[in-house]
Amino acid sequence: MKRYCLALDLIDDEEKIMKYRQFHQKIWPEIAANIRQRGVLDMQIWQIENRLFMIMDTQNDYAPLEAEQIAQAEPKNLEWEQLMWQFQQPLSSAKHGEKWIEMQQIFDLKQQG
């Protein structure tokens, strides 16, 4: 299993943040199926203020570029992403059109003596 941790910001607007949270209480079934089809075993999104943090556990052979191709081939996924863009704003380090940015691990208790 591989673990990815990613970050993204929401537009700093209380109403938009609440609506985003509501959409994620029960995502569309096609979205959940598409995420699993990409090789994602588990996904969680955590929030503080307008910052989101995603923890994604994947199969060992997970390949981000292949996962993106699978995501882009699903019309419902494209619709979902377009809908979510009205709530999201990229981090300052994001490239044009990039949403979730992979975070760098800097500490692991298991690696401590």
Domain module count: 1
Distance between the termini: 24 Å
CATH fold group: Alpha-Beta Plaits
Within CATH, the superfamily carries the name Dimeric alpha+beta barrel
Largest pleated sheet: 5 strands, antiparallel
Low-confidence region ranges:
none
Cα gyration radius (Å): 15 Å
What string, H for helix and E for strand, traces the elements in order?
EHHEEHHEE
Shape call:
globular
Keywords:
113 residues; Alpha-Beta Plaits; 27% strand; alpha+beta; 5-stranded antiparallel sheet; 5 strands
Secondary structure layout plus pairing:
Elements: E1 2-10, H1 14-23, H2 29-37, E2 40-48, E3 51-58, H3 64-72, H4 75-85, E4 88-89, E5 101-102
Antiparallel strand pairs: 1-3, 1-4, 1-5, 2-3
Outline the structure in words:
The longest helix has 11 residues, at 75-85. Helix content is 35%, strand content 27%. It starts with a strand and ends in an 11-residue tail after the last strand. The mean pLDDT is 96. It has a single domain (2-59, 66-103), classed as Dimeric alpha+beta barrel (Alpha-Beta Plaits), CATH 3.30.70. Strand 2 and strand 3 form a beta hairpin. The chain has helices spanning 14-23, 29-37, 64-72, 75-85, and strands spanning 2-10, 40-48, 51-58, 88-89, 101-102. It is globular, with a radius of gyration of 15 Å.
Describe what is shown at a glance.
This protein is α+β, with helices and mostly antiparallel strands.
